[in-house]
Amino acid sequence: MDAIIDKEILTKKSEDKTVRPLEMQGRIALFVYCNSYKGNRQLSHYGDLGYTSRKAHYSLLYVNEEDVSETIKKLKALKFVKRVRPSHLKDLNQNFSEAFAETNEVIKGQLEAALGKL
């Protein structure tokens, strides 16, 4: 009998809840070039540290789009930072269907020309 009551309570609780849509935060990658590897731990205070290269002395830092300009200014003020470069991935056209269609047309034209010569 307790199991039946618990199921009724659970269904009532789940019916009352509203589901909010998942909103993705806009993120931009910043490439932070450093003088030494020692200061890289401090970079996690400014965003999500995605990758750090000991040999090349750079780190990949993910930051919210709204905070990019402020974060770049703060990072440039640090002693161990040489330069900060934002990623331009959002500026690139990522629709490759047009490029594939153009390539297919070029290849078809070349094949027809080659077959026409035979």
Automatic annotation (TrEMBL):
Keywords: Cytoplasm. This is YlbG family protein. The keyword Cytoplasm applies. InterPro entries: DUF2129 (IPR016979). It comes from Lactococcus petauri. The keyword Cytoplasm applies. Pfam families: DUF2129.
